[in-house]
């Protein structure tokens, strides 16, 4: 059984967003346009399907027709303990560029570091690690 993977629908920014996540997390990115897929329900250069595989795996596409774009309320993508402390600190800083830091990445009384950021694409991230696991 595989773990759940997020599929995000962007308002025309899927290529930029997924490219930014590749730059942040590393990995391999595949993008397929609506035109390549033979679809006629949106602009031929819109992303019909994209996948980032690597330390963080994400799927994404541009919204078409009457679909609703990404709107994150009441949830975040948690990257808790998914990499070492220095890597997670770099990821946090990268996601914060052009975004909004909700809670600085900082040491907590329970002996861990965590923080929250909404990136420039509207995706909310919770990033953290145990201090003894650095």
Approximately what portion of the residues adopt beta-strand conformation? 35-45%
Terminal CA distance reads 29 Å
With strands numbered from the N-terminus, the spatial order across the biggest sheet is 1-4-3-2
Summed up, the helix count is: 2
* Largest beta-sheet details: 4 strands, mixed
Mean pLDDT: 94
Number of strands: 8
The secondary-structure class comes to: alpha/beta
Question: Helix and strand succession?
Answer: EHEEEEHEEE
Compute the number of structural domains.
2
CATH-derived architecture of the largest domain = 2-Layer Sandwich
Structure description:
The structure is a single chain. The protein is of the alpha/beta class and 134 residues long. The protein contains 2 helices and 8 strands, in the order βαββββαβββ. Strands 1-4-3-2 form a 4-stranded mixed sheet, with helices on one face. A 4-stranded mixed sheet has the order 5-8-7-6, covered by helices on one side. A hairpin with a 4-residue loop joins β6 (100-107) and β7 (112-118).
Q: Summarize this, please?
A:
The protein has 134 residues and is of the alpha/beta class. 18% of the residues lie in helices and 37% in strands. The chain is built from 2 helices and 8 strands; from the N terminus they run E-H-E-E-E-E-H-E-E-E.
């Amino acid at each position: 059984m595989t773990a759940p993977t997020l599929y995000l629908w962007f308002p025309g920014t899927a290529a930029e967003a997924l490219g930014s996540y590749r730059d942040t997390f590393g990995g391999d990115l595949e993008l397929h346009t609506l035109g390549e897929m033979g679809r006629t329900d949106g602009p031929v250069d819109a992303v019909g399907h994209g996948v980032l595989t690597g330390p963080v795996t994400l799927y994404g596409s541009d919204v078409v027709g009457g679909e609703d774009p990404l709107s994150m309320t009441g949830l975040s993508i948690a990257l808790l303990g998914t990499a070492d402390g220095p890597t997670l600190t770099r990821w946090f800083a990268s996601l914060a560029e052009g975004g909004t830091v909700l809670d600085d990445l900082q040491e907590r009384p329970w002996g861990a570091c965590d923080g929250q950021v909404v990136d420039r694409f509207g995706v909310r991230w919770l990033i953290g690690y145990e201090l003894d696991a650095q």
